[in-house]
Amino acid sequence: MKLTCPHCSVTGSIDDKFIGRKLKCPKCGQSFKVTEEEDAQTASPADSAPEPKNELGRISPDNTVEPPEQAEKTAPCTGCGKAFPEDELIELVGQRICVTCKPALLQKLREGATESGSGGLEAGIAGQYSFQTGEVLSEAWEKVKGAKGTIFGGVCAMYGISFLLQFIVGMLMGLLGVDKDHIVLFMITQLSLQLILGAITAIFYGGLIMMGVQRAADEPISFSMLFDGFAKAKPLIIAAILQTIMIGIGFIFLVVPGVYLSIGYCLTCPLIMEKGLGPWEALEASRKAIHHHWFQIFGLGFVMMLLVGFSAIPLGIGLIWTMPMGIITLGILYRTVFGTEE
Asked: Are 149 and 46 contained in the same domain?
């Protein structure tokens, strides 16, 4: 017979021998007496139909509850959006796709095409990304149009503020008579200045990098973004200090570890700004993700460095294009590795 708990209305099935006895509902824990009226109330022509599944399950003759049958879990395919059983979906570059969409995604990967916003933090750390150096540089060059004034203006403002700060400190030191004859005071002043300049650079660099990330995601940018780093000032400064220490130690030990970490930590700043990671967490996430394609990313950075170097030869005029291009290139690399949030 069927019965319904009068307290929580969950249905179940029991043997007729329980009529007149008290049962405890396994869902709500309340006790109630099974009566013949219960059977009569629930009896209907629908009783001849297959017994529906319910969350209470079946009450067996020994007064225990058999667990309900679990419905097969489904999830949508990232490619076509259709729902499939989870065990039929394939995990690829941070996306769960069906067998029909798999060839198209693999073709995109072979061509080095990655969609803006695709992937994710875990996929990036696992190295599930792919890109072609030429295509990244080509895309960065195309995106310079309409953005070079904003980004180059931000770069000039960052270095201009640093220069102005050094000039003011130098004037104060001259007025106070602090020079190399007062070696201790001179060293303390210089060290303090370098720490302040490093902190300011880290904060403004955070805003510049977000310009590149936004441009890579085809989102609008503005000069005011240069100051967005102040909202993340503490983690940015701590990360910059840790990065300087780790890279310095790496160069002490045969140089190679220093070069490795210099490249490995290049996505630390946007991870703090865009993903909200902590300083050490961002450093390690960047290093682990880049480790899988370190030589390719090193090659991308080397080519970009050559472009910036050659563009500076004719009176530095070319830097108006190549410096914004470098920022956007880093933004495209970040988008490719970790994806971007909407």
From this structure: no
Distance CA 97, CA 75 (A): 10
Any domain includes 125 = no
Asked whether 11 and 65 are in contact (CB, 8 A), the reply is no
Please check whether residue 200 lies inside any domain of the structure. yes
Per-residue pLDDT of 233-270, as tens digits, reads 999 999 999 998 899 898 887 788 899 999 999 999 99
Consecutive H or E run containing 32? strand 31-33
Q: Counting Cβ atoms within 10 Å, is residue 308 exposed (0-12), middle (13-18) or buried (19+)?
A: middle
| 314 and 190 fall within a common domain | yes
Mean pLDDT for 7-13 is 76
pLDDT at 198: 83
Count CB atoms within 10 A of the CB of residue 141.
16
DSSP 287-324: HHHHHTTHHHHHHHHHHHHHHHHHHTTTTTTTHHHHHH
What is the domain range of residue 88? Answer: 74-111
- The tens digit of pLDDT for each residue in 83-110 reads 788 777 776 655 677 878 777 766 655 5
CB atoms inside a 10 Å sphere around CB 212: 27
Over residues 277-298, the pLDDT tens digits come to 999 999 999 999 999 999 999 9
CA distance 130 to 235: 29
Q: Give the count of domains, the chain.
A: 3
**CA gap 302, 79 in Å, rounded:** 35
- pTM equals 0.62
